[in-house]
Amino acid sequence: MKVLVTGSSGLIGSEAVEHFDRQGHDVFGIDNNMRHVFFGAAGDTLWNLERLKNQCKRFTHAALDIRDRGAIDELFARKRFDLIVHCAAQPSHDKAREIPLLDFEVNALGTVNLLEMTRQHCPEAVFVFLSTNKVYGDAPNEIPMREMETRYDYARPEDRDGVDETCRIDRTLHSLFGASKAAADIVAQEYGRYFNMNVGIFRGGCLTGPSHSAVEMHGFLSYLVKVALTGVRYTVFGYKGKQVRDNIHSHDVVHAIEEFAANPRPGEVYNLGGGRENSVSMLEAIGRIEQLTGRKLDWRYVEEARKGDHICYISNLRKFQTHYPKWKITRSLDAILEEMVASQRAQQPLSAAK
Predict the structure, then answer these.
(1) In Å, what is the CA distance from 42 to each residue of 27, 133, 219, 255, 339?
(2) What percentage of the chain's residues is helix, strand, coil (to nearest 5)?
(3) Which string of DSSP letters, residue by residue, matches 53-96?
(4) Which of 157, 172, 267, 346 is such that its CA lies 20 to 30 A from the CA of 76?
């Protein structure tokens, strides 16, 4: 099988490259290190690219830009892929307001370029698009909630499993990032439904793992581990630090992609996160990381929350688990944190020893 992974040096992209390479597939990755453009040196992913080049046997990389339709057309004409895993994105809720045109071009235009080239050159291929829960905007904040000692939670028993795919995506404040991803999300659905292509859309919660080039504006759990071990100050924005996110390891994301690819449902949309068991508030995450690292986190609180941010977001996984019953969460929140702490310590042993 020929597999294309966009954003192949990023968190999910690199996990996909390694997974399909281990299975003996030919894997072609495109990544032009735009994360460095978005976030500076801290977001640079070249270290991960070098790791993939050293570890993978059937991996080929090209620094292509998904906005370059001509280059993408030429690539698809040559390769005729069987599976496209589209992870490349401008991923930050906050950064998008500084670069609205670039954000939309990467997230929306880049996605339609890839979808159209798939339709033109390999219409039978499976196309998986990594969308985001930010397509729902702040509509999840309308779910009745109760405030607890360390977190917010849903007040009604029927909401316990979290936000499902029936949540509306319009008439809500998204952030420009959420809007550009919503545009791409709907276009991807349309290619699946209108053209009957094997397109699947995964609306991710907090995707995480040790291969994240985490920065303050994106990758909260990994970045929290990084600042705990380096002594950098962390800022919590609003909601008393009780805002909740569910976290899923990149390993489990890629296995969900694999399940969909084996039995695709054209134009289907799935929420994908860690679910209730892997949910954590900011205050709870800080406490767990302090306990794991033995270091006190230097953090401050800012009253003003981020625009369009979720107060409590837990992904309801029932739809995907019903369609693909062999898939399940295999990495607990504690296991994820332990792995990230170990990985960060290996990268920064001097900081960890202070």
Answers:
(1) 27, 25, 12, 28, 20
(2) 45, 20, 35
(3) HHH-SSEEEE---TT-HHHHHHHHHHH--SEEEE------TTGG
(4) 267
Closest among 57, 211, 75, 187 to 127, alpha carbons compared: 187
Q: Count CB neighbours of 146 within 10 A.
A: 11
**Amino acid present at 212:** H
User: How many CA atoms are closer than 13 Å to the CA of 137, on its beta-carbon side?
Assistant: 15
Task: Determine the Cα–Cα distance for residues 92 and 315; give it in Å rounded to an integer.
Answer: 19
State how far the Cα of 144 lies from the Cα of 138, in Å rounded to an integer: 13
In 10 A of CB 275, how many CB atoms? 22
Q: What is the pLDDT along the chain (354 residues), one digit of tens a residue?
A: 999 999 999 999 999 999 999 999 999 999 999 999 999 998 999 999 999 999 999 999 999 999 999 999 999 999 999 999 999 999 998 999 999 999 999 999 999 999 999 999 999 999 999 999 999 999 999 999 999 999 999 999 999 999 999 999 999 999 999 999 999 999 999 999 999 999 999 999 899 998 888 777 777 898 999 999 999 999 999 999 999 999 999 999 999 999 999 999 999 999 999 999 999 999 999 999 999 999 999 999 999 998 889 999 999 999 999 999 999 999 999 999 999 999 989 886 544 443
| Distance (Å) of CA 141 to CA 119, 152, 155, 310 | 37, 11, 12, 6
User: What type of residue is 308?
Assistant: G
| Closest by CA position to 32, among listed 18, 46, 43 | 46
The residue written with tokens 């792995």 in the block is: 339
At position 250, the amino acid (one-letter code) is S
CATH no. of 2-353? 3.40.50.720
Model pTM above 0.90:
yes
